[in-house]
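quick one, 375 residues, struct below
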Amino acid sequence: MAEKRDYYEVLGVSKNASKDEIKDAYRKLAMQYHPDRNKAADAEDKFKEISEAYAVLSDDQKRQQYDTLGHAGFDQRYTSEDIFRGADFETIFRDIGFGFGDLFRTFFGGGFGGGGFRERNNRGQDLGYELEITLEEAAKGTEKGIVVPRTEKCEVCGGSGASPGTSPKTCPKCNGAGQVRNTRRNSFLTYVQVTPCSECRGRGTLIESPCSKCHGTGLTKKRRKINVKIPEGIDEGYQLRLRGEGEMAPRGGEPGDLYVLVHIKPHELFMREGDDLWYVLIVGYPQAALGAEVPVPTLDGLTTVKIKPGTQAGETIRLKGKGMPRFRGYGKGDLLVRVGISVPEKLTAKQRALLEQLAEEFDQDVKHKKSMFGF
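---
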């Protein structure tokens, strides 16, 4: 087994770091290694490592024990359940908008909540949905109705899984716990093994007369319409989490979540760059040379920009506050207008004469001379 790294080293903090510094360090690392965001093969292992370090160092008593005895002495006194009991994970993961319970069910067969450890192996699956909106909808915010196929409670048995008029009975082997614990003690070490009950397969109940519609699962497939609120300023690829809108869980368990991945359609006029928008404005040579006032589109309608005399192709005019609203922030980005100069492909005789006269004034040779090769 690989030797455990020092908890302070894992979180990247000094040994005299405050609790706030430890919490901030863990929040940043959790954002980096949470498997909902990081798909690397070792992300879950790193996430478990930083979570274990935070669970110990955020608790005064456990931290003192660890500082005194290190890993060896610490592991002799604490089981996995003890290490994570009481740590404030729920608040942190609610703040950063990621799921927490599922990952720890994978690691330990349970979840955390209410300030302590509790087994929670009955949860519905999370669902995903990709939603495309326009740039205008992203700027102003909107509400979209989507239809999601998901499992819901069977309307015949009410989700119990048992035929109408009957009910599930408590499993006699695990007394309704759904799991069996085996504890062994050897000298200073305590081993706790938690396994699903083989009789009820972890459900805690037995169904003697299954429902004819759902065949004892308590669930049926339905298409559910859900309204999704899109906040203003949202950007391409942002993922919204709708708690409890995923698959229903059998026998009254916790429902999963619905993750809505937002895509923004390309716009015919604007290109987005963060909170700013870019627009290419094409003006004529006389306008660029002499200056002009030209209408420019924005997300709020037309506005006017001043082209100063002598404006060159590629110059940028910044219109403050005419860009996208800052997502979950204050104010707006800017509209950046890049100037291009239009050159006519065909000229009338009068236009050609005027341009030739202008070229003479600038002492520029515009006459087309034939080469020795005849062109």
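The two ends are 81 Å apart (CA to CA).
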